[in-house]
Specification:
about 300 residues; alpha+beta; 2 domains; two-stranded antiparallel sheet; 12 helices; elongated
């Protein structure tokens, strides 16, 4: 709650450095690091009038409330109203706090930076949706220039102790194995996992109505080497140079293996070719990496 309150009190213009400093002030002795910012997403907003005055925070809740769930009733009530629907353009700042030597030993903090903008008029004389859901999120409707509605703001999203997440039923076996592979490999020997990877966490509800989280690893670096081909893969010295060059770009050893597990552009044939090389006449991987690769060869998986 203190982290959430600090985010709400901090102006968006403070930027990531201000955000990191504010959270470090709440966690004495913790080393808070900015790992990644992901943008380009948006979600539904609310309803405003001609002067930008707030009518509703959430379009869907407002539409259901004034109509009782009846689309005909809703359209009659909004037909003569000069109101506008907004959307929230966002980016997510991923902050991490290392808490121990293992890959799972970190806290991940997600803070959203939101800018509310005009999206569309609330209705159109030639448009009549078939349902409340279509009214709230129409597939085809004239859009307005995205003029800002108020200043951008920071909103706390979640704080996740990853080692606790991995002890819960929400942690899938592939994620657990991915993190264990990191610890067993030369990557884990020389690098801190959360400086190179974060978890993309999603909330979902199962058929019984219970809420869960799903998580998958995503790389921090945008400097990904050219995709390794899915066709004919090099062998011997050429293949060794290829994977070591991949690792140099990413800044830690065995990086190609973890990208192969998460990026479909990095072919699984690469691992097979390296494995075949290493049981033959070549030796260009440390023994600990060879053990990880051999386990994958015997029981392949992707994360």
């Amino acid at each position: 709650m203190r982290v959430a309150e600090a985010c709400a009190a901090l102006p968006a213009r403070a930027g990531v450095p201000g955000l990191v400093a504010a959270i470090e002030g709440l966690l004495p002795g913790a080393q808070v690091q900015h790992a990644l910012t992901r943008g380009g997403w948006h979600r539904l907003g609310g309803v405003v009038d001609l002067d930008g005055g707030r009518i509703a925070e959430h379009l869907g809740t407002w539409a259901e409330t004034i109509s009782g769930g009846d689309i005909d009733e809703l359209m009659q009530k909004v037909a003569d109203l000069r109101l506008f629907v907004t959307r929230l353009n966002g980016q997510t700042h991923y902050l991490v706090v290392p808490t121990g030597p293992a890959a799972r030993d970190f806290i991940q903090i997600e803070v959203e930076e939101l800018q509310e903008v005009l999206d569309r008029c609330i209705t159109d004389p030639d448009w009549f949706p078939d349902s409340i859901a279509e009214f709230v999120d129409p597939l085809d409707f004239p859009r307005l220039e995205p003029e800002p509605v108020g200043p951008p703001r920071l909103v706390f999203r979640r704080l996740v102790p990853v080692n606790r997440l991995l002890k819960s039923s929400d942690a899938g076996p592939r994620l657990v194995r991915f993190l264990d592979d990191w610890d067993r490999s030369s990557a884990g020997e020389t690098s801190i996992f959360c400086e190179h990877w974060v978890l993309s966490i999603r909330e979902y509800r199962d058929q019984e109505g219970d809420d869960h989280l799903s998580a998958k690893p995503i790389p921090v670096s945008a400097a990904v080497p050219p995709a390794l081909p899915d066709g004919v893969v090099a062998r011997g010295a050429q293949l060794a140079n290829q994977i070591h060059g991949f690792d140099r770009v990413l800044g830690y050893p065995f990086a190609w293996y973890f990208y192969m597990l998460t990026n479909p552009k990095v072919s699984h044939r690469l691992a097979t070719a390296v494995h075949d090389d290493l049981i033959g006449a070549y030796a260009y991987l440390p023994v600990r990496d060879l053990k990880v690769l051999r386990d994958w060869y015997n029981q392949p998986y992707g994360a």
